[in-house]
Design goal:
Elements lengths: L2 E2 L4 E2 L6 E2 H4 L6 E2 H15 L6 E4 L10 H14 L4 E7 L3 E6 L5 H14 L5 E5 L8 H9 L8 E7 L5 E5 L14 E5 L6 H11 L4 E4 L9 E5 L4 E6 L1 E4 L16 E2 L2 H19 L3 H14 L1
Parallel strand pairs: 7-8, 8-11, 11-12, 12-16
Antiparallel strand pairs: 1-4, 2-3, 5-14, 6-7, 9-10, 9-15, 13-14
Helix pairs in contact: 4-5, 5-6, 7-8
């Protein structure tokens, strides 16, 4: 990408130049470096983690329509398997989901349903969100609905700053495939878990449906919209506020605090051990008990 020069700000007198641009601090930066530098300066004045500049997708210097930008996002979801990096049955009949993004329900619903089908007969579930950077509120509701029995659980509300209207998000009354009920769920977190990934954590924790294991998450709760400021750069501005019906607040600026606080790299073995101990105490299958004992021995 080409290097950019940001014009200097006007000073109070002839020849005076004020501010970082006037001092040449942004001279020679390419678009990603400039976006990062400006985001850091915004963060010094506003603590909202969603307020940031990024490089716009598409061809350089060619503005994208909202429809084209949305199609690029959907293509990214398709190419990343809708954020589902790994689905596995672990030893001891434990399900494992590694989710890097939260896909839209409309486009990724079949992928979510397929993943949940593959873990539907396990006896405990690990959901790894340590590398999850966010996504769609509708996708959060689709994923979490599998963990509730019906459409009667109020999971979240989002209030629009522009209209003042509040949209309530409830668990879904119908889902393709089986629900995952009456079995423990462990959610793995890190300091990088962000946005919609955090909402998934927060909703389940508030409802007492999962045990969170790992680190306090990054702390970005406000939905955003992107606005172009140049042909190559865009700014993401918070335009709404999440309000959990149980807590009456959200995780903005504080992050989601885990139930079991451990370094992110230890979250998997700690959660897996807890799941295996549950299986040994509850399973009626001799085969699964043997698997669980073997897996515990491998964990040390």
């Amino acid at each position: 990408m080409r290097a950019l020069r940001v014009p200097g700000a006007r000073g109070g007198g002839r020849g005076r130049r004020a501010g970082p641009a006037g001092r040449g601090e942004y001279d020679g930066l390419d678009e990603p470096a400039l976006a990062e530098a400006l985001t850091a300066r915004l963060a010094a004045h506003c603590a909202d983690r969603h307020l940031r500049l990024t490089v716009r997708d598409g061809q350089p210097h060619e503005p994208l329509s909202a429809e084209a930008a949305q199609e690029l996002w959907r293509e990214r979801l398709r190419l990343s398997n809708h954020g589902i990096a790994r689905v596995e049955r672990l030893g001891g009949n434990i399900g494992y989901l590694d989710l890097r993004l939260v896909t839209e329900a409309a486009g990724g619903g079949r992928a979510i349903a397929a993943a949940m089908e593959l873990v539907s007969h396990t006896e405990a579930l690990l959901i790894d969100l340590r590398r999850n950077r966010g996504g769609s509120p509708d996708g959060v509701i689709f994923w979490t609905s599998y963990l509730f029995p019906d459409g009667q659980t109020h999971l979240n509300s989002i209030t629009s700053a522009a209209t003042g209207l509040t949209r309530q998000y409830w668990s879904l009354a119908y889902l393709p495939g089986e629900r995952y009920l009456d079995r423990p769920v462990y959610v793995l977190t890190s300091g990088s878990t962000f946005s919609a990934g955090e909402e998934l954590c927060y909703n389940l924790q508030a409802q007492g449906r999962a045990v969170l294991v790992g680190e306090t998450t990054r702390g970005g709760a406000h939905p955003t919209d992107a606005f172009p400021i140049t042909p190559t750069l865009q700014i993401w501005v918070p335009t709404a506020r999440s309000v959990n019906p149980v807590t009456g607040t959200n995780w903005e600026g504080t992050g989601v605090t885990p139930d079991l606080a451990v370094p992110a790299e230890q979250a998997y073995p700690v959660a897996y051990r807890a799941a295996l101990e549950h299986v040994l105490a509850s399973t009626g299958s001799a085969i699964v008990r043997d698997e669980a004992r073997e897996a515990l021995a491998e964990l040390g």
